[in-house]
Design goal:
Order of helices and strands of chain A: HHHHHHHHHHHHHH
Structural class of chain A: mainly alpha
Strand content of chain B: under 5%
Number of helices of chain B: 17
CATH architecture of the largest domain in chain B: Up-down Bundle
CATH superfamily of the largest domain in chain A: Cytochrome c-like domain
Strand content of chain A: under 5%
Strand order of the largest sheet of chain B: 1-2
Distance between the termini of chain A: 61 Å
CATH topology of the largest domain in chain A: Cytochrome Bc1 Complex, Chain D, domain 2
CATH class of the largest domain in chain A: Mainly Alpha
Number of strands of chain A: 0
Number of strands of chain B: 2
Distance between the termini of chain B: 37 Å
CATH class of the largest domain in chain B: Mainly Alpha
Largest sheet of chain B: 2 strands, antiparallel
CATH architecture of the largest domain in chain A: Orthogonal Bundle
CATH superfamily of the largest domain in chain B: Cytochrome c oxidase-like, subunit I domain
Oligomer: heterodimer
Largest sheet of chain A: none
Radius of gyration of chain B: 24 Å
Number of helices of chain A: 14
Shape of chain A: globular
Order of helices and strands of chain B: HHHHHHHEEHHHHHHHHHH
Radius of gyration of chain A: 22 Å
Shape of chain B: globular
Helix content of chain A: 40-55%
Helix content of chain B: over 70%
Chain lengths: ~250, ~550
């Protein structure tokens, strides 16, 4: 071995090629197949895309680094399923560019936080977490309430998402700014169009409690309220398994 | 520094800086209604700030003819100083975010930039890429020349790499404060910073290849294997993990090419191998040169070096999926990741053992010399944290440790105990050599730094072990009626004392680094006892005892 190696280590190019060759094998065997094996991501018929407002909220979640303390991935462990709900499926994050599975739970998992609390609770919690959870060590995000949401470029965001494979259609891209505003203005003409484009189950509400202006708080709460609600697949699978295990 | 460049090279430097400024101006104009505009401005200011001293010295006397026969150490000197500067910044940010977890109202300003989520990547990037990266560039230039007995290739290229890399770090850290992040851990900077790093990295690789091409030693020394693996694999990881589509040329925001499960796997393939090839391979390169030099003994075993090197290069790339146990990642990938992670103990301990056995016969020096003791403790922590890493990658163990502070403790055993300790040891060896001093200004201050660093690391790691295990157990404890015993908030309350202890441990480590900075400053200011080191490649045989196979 040592004699052979003494030959390799005399050639710079040879050594470089050897490093590239040896180090590539792992990725080729583990990552490449994930793109080609079909059942890596379950086929789910009712999976919907994020609305422009939810996507804007997701980008605020990313911007503020929420992922550093909150995971969005419920593991297949009994205590996690009992605490947070059915374990996460690959299909549920198939439109997440990038994924926000997280690696640390300084706060609880948020994969199924949608619908668990009211909009008002979320707003109060984000303004000052210690008002609703006295022991919390989460930062305050009161400024979100004061900041108007930038909507004019949302069409570009949807187009970029489409370019990486998310099925947004041309109408969604063209109307993204109006849809973002409409989702936070129930009763308006724009709101009806959001429901028409993204489905009747879409949450159309004044998320932050302030009528008239669409803020970053609206967007973030709209995003939090849709977490775990893009598809019912995980709940369906849990019920099927329960039925199988029942005597 | 500029005096060592010819007039022609000074002009070329100005042209390069002009191009960089132009690039910044274009970005700034395109992104004037986006945070990207500020980054365009930052690039212009950075380039202009460097151009001023070059312009001022444009007509200074030319260097002497024999310049080419000496080693080129100016970039290493500046790299050491930048590394220590980033260390203080990164460690300070670390203490701050640690304090915020214990006392969430401890923000000095009620402003978005000062919230935990934006400060935390500034800590990780400041420490890993600012402190660690600059130390790697500085030491690799030094080691490459000494073990090749050849002068660094190019006059401007090393400066381009060092300064260009620091521009990347600046873009990264200032971006987080403004909310520019793509959220991929340890790969947060957006597309334009990523592209810039690719350019810098290609130049870094060129320096390595071209310098090795003119080496006067037939064999490439072990340290260079590791530095080369660091440069090559980090390039591949960086490019693939950062593939993304920007919203527009005038916007910082981009959307990752991958989604969901594929993105998670790509991210942790990157993330774990950033640990392997940035924080391990590069620093092993450091260890394989500076530890035997300081101990005055050749590396214990050439064969162990070979086993360790190829084992690490092959196996680490399979291990990333252990970050995704029990998730929606297919089970077979999790199992492969676990298996390779456990096997990794062999090449890891081969290097840790090789380092410690090299010290056989030099233990008296370890006792008396804090610089060598830094390196010894680093090897011990390397052995400990690689063992812990393999252990935590086992699926059943991971079910308890994942998502908890145990992971944070593990990372810091590696980052403080291994990476920072080997760096401080190497810097304490290098500073007197680089500035032509007989020794560091104060050996006592090196001792103070050593004990602060060791104590700080132990306090940090033990508090995180405790909090992590308690947290993991509380999340899965059931009462007699079969329901979960603790709410999430119960577990958070239980963490408080450990969060306080952790902040104190970090503070000690930061104080140690500050002591180190003072000592380095006094050493540089002190009187030169010998001719400033520009030792000649041809008449040095001091490194011969390091040559492979002997």
């Amino acid at each position: 071995m040592a004699e052979f190696h003494k030959k390799i280590e005399r050639s710079t190019i040879g050594f470089v090629l050897a490093i590239i060759g040896v180090s590539s094998i792992g990725g080729l065997f583990e990552i490449a197949p994930l793109f080609t094996i079909d059942d890596t991501v379950e086929k789910v018929a009712d999976m919907r895309v994020y609305t422009p407002l939810e996507l804007a909220g997701r980008n605020i979640y990313i911007r503020e680094g929420c992922y550093a303390c909150h995971s969005q991935m419920i593991r297949t462990l009994r205590d996690e399923v009992e605490r947070y709900g059915p374990y996460s499926l690959a299909a549920e994050s198939q439109y997440d560019h990038p994924m926000l599975w997280g690696s640390k739970r300084t706060g609880p998992d948020l994969a199924r936080v949608g619908g668990k609390y009211s909009d008002a609770w979320h707003v109060a919690h984000l303004v000052n977490p210690r008002d609703v959870v006295p022991e919390s060590n989460m930062p305050r995000y009161a400024f979100l309430e004061r900041k108007a949401l930038k909507v004019e470029d949302l069409g570009g965001h949807l187009a970029a998402m489409k370019a990486v494979g998310v099925p947004y259609d041309d109408a969604m891209i063209a109307n993204a700014p109006a849809d973002a505003q409409g989702q936070a203005m129930p009763g308006s003409l724009m709101a009806d169009q959001v429901a028409a484009r993204y489905g009747d189950a879409t949450n159309i509400r004044v998320f932050d409690g302030q009528r008239g202006v669409v803020t970053e708080m609206d967007a973030l709460v709209a995003y939090l309220q849709i977490l775990g609600k893009l598809t019912d697949a995980a709940h369906r699978q849990q019920q099927q398994q329960a039925a199988l295990e029942a005597p | 520094m500029i005096a060592r460049l010819t007039r022609h090279e000074r002009q070329n430097a100005l042209i390069i800086l002009g191009l960089v400024a132009l690039m910044g101006a274009v970005l700034g104009l395109a992104g004037r209604s986006d945070p990207l505009g500020w980054h365009g401005l930052l690039i212009v200011v950075f380039a202009a700030g460097l151009a001023l001293p070059v312009l001022g010295a444009l007509d200074a006397p030319e260097p002497t003819e024999d310049r080419e026969s000496a080693y080129y150490d100016d970039p290493t000197r500046l790299g050491i100083l930048l590394s220590m500067g980033w260390a203080v910044f990164g460690l300070f940010m670390g203490v701050w975010v640690a304090a915020l977890l214990a006392w969430p109202e401890l923000t000095f300003v009620d402003s978005p930039w000062a919230s935990f989520g934006r400060l935390r990547p500034a800590h990780t990037t400041g420490v890993i890429f600012g402190f660690g990266g600059n130390a790697l560039i500085a030491t690799s230039f030094h080691v490459l020349q000494r073990t090749s007995r050849a002068r660094l290739s190019g006059q401007l290229l090393p400066w381009f790499v060092l300064l260009g890399y620091n521009l990347f770090c600046l873009l990264a850290v200032t971006g987080y404060f403004m909310g520019i992040t793509q959220s991929k851990e340890y790969a947060e900077p957006e597309w334009y910073a990523d592209l810039w790093l690719v350019v810098v990295w290609v130049a870094y690789f060129l320096i390595y290849i071209l310098t090795l091409a003119r080496r006067k030693e037939p064999h490439i020394y072990v340290a260079n294997w590791y530095y080369m693996a660091f440069i090559l694999v980090v390039a591949v990881l960086h490019i693939i993990n950062n593939l993304a589509v920007p919203v527009s040329f005038g916007q910082a925001k981009a959307y990752s090419a991958f989604s969901g499960v594929q993105d998670a796997m790509t991210q942790w393939w990157y993330g774990h191998n950033a640990v392997a090839f940035f924080l391990t391979a590069g620093f092993l390169g450091m260890m394989y040169y500076y530890l035997p030099k300081r101990a005055g003994r050749p590396i214990f075993s050439y064969r162990m070096s070979i086993v360790s090197f190829w084992g690490i290069t092959f196996m680490y790339l399979w291990a990333g999926s252990h970050h995704l146990h029990y998730t929606a990642l297919p089970h077979w990938v999790q199992t492969l990741g676990m298996t390779f992670s456990v096997m990794l103990i062999v090449p890891s301990w081969a290097s840790a053992g090789n380092a410690l056995l090299t010290l056989n016969g030099a233990w008296r020096k370890v006792r008396d010399d804090a610089t060598l003791r830094f390196m010894m403790i680093a090897a011990v922590f390397y052995g400990l944290s690689t063992f812990e890493g393999s252990f935590m990658a086992i699926r059943a163990v991971n079910s308890l440790s994942h998502y908890t502070d145990w992971t944070i403790g593990h990372v810091h055993a590696g980052a403080l105990g291994w990476v920072a300790m080997i760096t401080f040891g190497s810097i304490y060896y290098l500073v007197p050599v680089m500035w032509g001093r007989e020794r560091m200004h104060s050996a006592a201050l090196v001792e103070v730094h050593f004990w602060l660093a060791l104590l700080g690391t132990l306090v940090y790691v033990f508090s995180m072990w405790n909090s992590g295990v308690i947290q993991g157990l509380m999340w899965r404890t059931y009462d007699e009626s079969g329901s979960l015993s603790y709410s999430f908030v119960d577990s958070l309350v239980a963490m408080h004392p450990y969060y306080v202890a952790r902040a104190l441990g970090g503070l000690m480590f930061l104080m140690g680094a500050l002591v180190g900075c003072c000592n380095i400053w006094m050493t540089i200011r002190g009187a030169s006892v010998s001719v400033p080191q520009d030792d000649r490649p041809a008449d040095r045989n001091a490194d011969r005892n390091l040559v492979a196979g002997e």
